[in-house]
Design goal:
single chain, alpha+beta, Glutaredoxin, binds glutathione
Length: 80
Amino acid sequence: MPILYVKSGCAFCAKVLQAAEELGVSLDVRNVADPGITEELIAHGGKRQMPYLIDEEHNVAMYESDDIVSYLHETFTPKQ
Ligand SMILES: N[C@@H](CCC(=O)N[C@@H](CS)C(=O)NCC(=O)O)C(=O)O
């Protein structure tokens, strides 16, 4: 399951969560308010910025909400 790092009250994160819900994509959502999560995010991505997506199944990791939303649509919407 893809991992999504988020921050409470983050509109960019909410946009990604809404896209995932609309697509029916289940995410392992990790909030930087929880212990150790910020450190985990920085260790993987290199900086504290949310949202951040890791999709290990497709060997993909990215910041930027618009990129993540596009990725979710490209990856999880059946191609016509
Ligand atoms: N262009 C980025 C902006 C992301 C952004 O500004 N996220 C804020 C939270 S809403 C952030 O990471 N702030 C740093 C912090 O809270 O430490 C995107 O669209 O994902």
